[in-house]
Amino acid sequence: MNRWLFRMLDFLFALTGLVLGLPVLIILYILGLLDTGSPLFLQQRVGRNQKPFTLVKFRTMQKDTAHVASHLASASSITRFGHFLRRTKLDELPQLWNVLKGEMSLVGPRPCLFNQHELIDERAKRGVFDVRPGITGLAQINDIDMSTPELLAKTDAQMIELLSVPRYLGYIVKTVSGKGAGDRVNRD
Predict the structure, then answer these.
(1) Which residues of 114-140 are buried (b: 16+ CB within 10 A; e: fewer)?
(2) Chain mean pLDDT for the chain
(3) What are phi and psi of 57, to 5 degrees?
(4) What one-character-per-residue DSSP string does 2-30 give?
(5) Residue pLDDT, tens place only, 79-100
(6) Which residue, 51, 71, 113, 166, is most buried by CB atoms nearer than 10 A?
(7) Backbone angles phi and psi of 32, in degrees to 5
(8) DSSP secondary structure of 123-178
(9) How far apart, in Å, are the Cα atoms of 162 and each of 1, 86, 127, 157?
């Protein structure tokens, strides 16, 4: 895997996406203000080499929702606008800023929370933290989320080992075209 090539692609795609997507970002920001009064969601996540970074997304849940993995959060916490953002994956657009800054990649393992100890252990065993976390990847397009830590870590490691430019581009195209359901939430 040629890391500098992927970093160059990340930078170019993120910059292009932020510049061309600016009108959409502004509209979603305003709609988010009307929805929750606080359109951006900032959260500490586990980054490359297990270093913390602040992930930025559009808020899809009520402001008072507990900071837990999505599969542990209640579906009733998701706002009406949040449902739209999640379904279209537009809630992920602000992460292009994380990619531009070098904290994330477009393709890589989804960054977890520091309280997801089982997932952190499984990923550490497999060297998953040697790379930048990503917005999408093999697990995301196959609907594997953080509720199955061992399977997710194995899938992340497989993706990292086999990553090539065609696969990198393929994961992005599949994500943009709607493959993968995104993070699940607790339906209780």
Answers:
(1) eebeebbebbeebebbebbbbbbbbbb
(2) 90
(3) -140, 170
(4) -HHHHHHHHHHHHHHHHHHTHHHHHHHHH
(5) 999 999 998 989 999 999 999 9
(6) 113
(7) -65, -35
(8) HHHTTGGGS--EEE-HHHHTT--TTSHHHHHHHHHHHHHH--HHHHHHHHHHHHTT
(9) 8, 28, 14, 9
